[in-house]
Design goal:
Layout: H1 16-25, E1 100-104, E2 109-112, H2 115-122, H3 125-128, E3 137-143, E4 150-152, E5 157-160, E6 175-176, H4 179-189, E7 192-195, H5 201-207
Antiparallel strand pairs: 1-2, 1-3, 3-4, 5-6, 5-7
InterPro entries: N2O_reductase_NosL
Organism: Acidovorax benzenivorans
Protein name: Nitrous oxide reductase accessory protein NosL
């Protein structure tokens, strides 16, 4: 007489994960749940940037001139809270002590998170703001490190190689009204003082290693 087989073990209680999967799949043979795949919209406008190297994907519309300001069209302006740097995408108003700006002949302005980003921009205006040229820029400004006021970028004195870290937590180009102020900063923070005309592609590449290969020397 054959030996009777033992009864099968009772079914194990379903785990929370199994129960959740059953709820998702349902009882009607539904396929497993997947998050819907969405393709992000492609940016457009002057600052829709694509490519490699230091390229970023940023939409940085210009700030038009507002006659209600009651100031000359090419005068330095306050940094709007929503303005974005067309080079790196940061909001310059959040690091006002480093901000810079350019104003085009028709009154449009772009704002930058730092002098370094401004210099990168001036070397390749058409790349960062398509349809624009450096020749159309009417004014360039950087922030005085000592006073927080605006300085003509061509007339400012810069310090390179100091211990001062810009908004991107890397080396930058703090700006000063004159050589004396720049030299006092050098004594405290290191580096060396240079004029606007001495800022070239090799210097910028030392501060921004991903500088585009087609960077051109900015014009006066």
């Amino acid at each position: 007489m054959p030996t009777p087989r033992p009864p099968p073990p009772p079914p194990r209680p379903a785990s929370r994960r199994t129960t959740l999967a059953a709820l998702l799949l349902g009882s009607a043979g539904l396929v497993a749940w997947q998050w819907p795949q969405r393709t992000p919209p492609r940016p457009s406008g002057n600052a829709a940037l694509e490519g490699i190297g230091d390229d970023v994907c940023v939409v940085a519309p210009p700030t038009p001139y507002d006659p209600a300001l009651g100031q000359p069209l090419t005068a330095a302006r306050d940094v709007p809270a929503d303005a974005r740097c067309p080079v790196c995408g940061m909001y310059p108003a959040r690091a006002r002590a480093w901000a810079a700006q350019v104003i085009f002949a028709e009154g449009d302005a772009y704002f930058f998170d730092s002098p370094l980003s401004l210099m990168q921009y001036l070397g390749n205006v058409a790349h960062y703001t398509r349809g624009r040229t450096a020749d159309a820029i009417a004014a360039r400004y950087v922030t005085d490190t000592d006073t927080g006021g605006w300085l003509n970028a061509h007339e400012a004195v810069y310090v390179t190689g100091s211990s001062a870290m810009g908004p991107m937590r890397a080396g930058n180009l703090p700006a000063f009204a004159d050589a004396g102020a720049a030299q006092r900063f050098v004594q405290q923070r290191g580096g060396r003082a240079i004029l606007f005309s001495a800022i070239d592609a090799p210097l910028l590449r030392g501060l921004a290693p991903n500088l585009r290969a087609d960077h051109r020397l900015h014009s006066g």
